Amino acid sequence: MFIAWLETLMKKLMGVVLCFTSFIVGFNAAAQSSDGGGISGNYVIQPQDLIRMEVFQEPDLEQEIRVAADGTVTLPLIGVTHVGGLSVDDARRKITDLYNRDYLVNPHISLLVLVYTERRVEVLGMVNRPGKVPIPPEEELTLTKAISGAGGHNRLADLSRVRLTRTDENGKPQVMRINFTEITKGRAKDIKLQDGDSIFVDERLF
C-alpha cells in the first residue's frame, strides 16, 4: 500500500517538474525570439513597412503597425516613436527601453517585418532588359547585381562610361561617373545602390 502511494506521489512530482521545465523552455524561446535575431534583424525599417510587435505575456500590447511616411509608429502606452532608418534589432531595443522605463518590468519584445516596402533602382541604356530592378528586402544591391538584374550589358555597351544618378538629402540629383570595367576586373570596389538610384550604361563610340 505504501509503495503504491509512493509511486503515485513520484508520478505527480515528475508531472510538476515536466510542467516547470516546459515553462522555462517556452520562456527562453520567447526571450530568444525577442532578440530580433535572424536575417531580418539587420533590415533597416522603411516608411510604409508593416511591422508586428509582440510583448511576452502582454497580449493587449500586440500590434500590427504601418510605418508612417515620416518613419514613425504609434504604439500602445508610449505613443509616437520614430523607427524609420533603424535596423529591426535597434528598433526593438529602443521600444524595449521605452516600455521598460515607465510601464513594464524587463519586457521581452519581438519585432517582425510582415510586409516590406518595395525599393527599386532603374537601369537604362545598353542593357538587355532596361527598366526597374528591385532591391531585395534583406540584402544589398550592388551596381554589378543591378546590371545583371537588367539582363546584363549588350554588345554596344561602353562599360567605362556608366552614370549613377542619386538624389541627395536636399532633393538635388547628383551624378557619379563610373568605370564599370575596373569593377568587373576587381580593380575597384563595387558600389552599393540605394532606393531610387538610376543607372545609365552608355553606348560605345566607334
* Shape category: elongated
Structural class: alpha+beta
Give the total of domains. 2
Superfamily (CATH H level) name of the largest domain: Outer membrane lipoprotein wza domain like
CATH class of the largest domain: Alpha Beta
- Note poorly predicted spans: 16-39
Rg over alpha carbons: 26 Å
Proportion of residues in helical segments:
25-40%
Helices, by number, come to 4
CATH topology term of the largest domain: Outer membrane lipoprotein wza fold like
Quaternary state reads single chain
Secondary-structure element pattern, one letter each? HEEEEHEEEHEEHE
Structure summary, number of beta strands:
10
CATH level-two architecture of the largest domain: Roll
Give the gist of this structure.
This protein has 206 residues and is α+β, with helices and mostly antiparallel strands. It has 4 helices and 10 strands.
Textual characterization of the structure:
The chain has 206 residues and is an alpha+beta fold. The chain folds into two domains: 34-115, wza like fold (2-Layer Sandwich), CATH 3.30.1950.10; 120-203, Outer membrane lipoprotein wza domain like (Outer membrane lipoprotein wza fold like, Roll), CATH 3.10.560. Helices cover 29% and strands 28% of the residues. The chain contains four helices and ten strands; from the N terminus they run αββββαβββαββαβ. The protein has helices spanning 2-33, 88-102, 143-149, 180-184, and strands spanning 50-55, 63-66, 72-75, 79-82, 109-115, 120-125, 131-134, 157-167, 173-178, 198-203. The strands form three sheets. The chain has a five-stranded mixed β-sheet with strand order 7-6-10-8-9. Strand 6 (120-125) and strand 7 form a beta hairpin. The longest helix has 32 residues, at 2-33. The chain is elongated. It starts with a helix and ends with a strand.
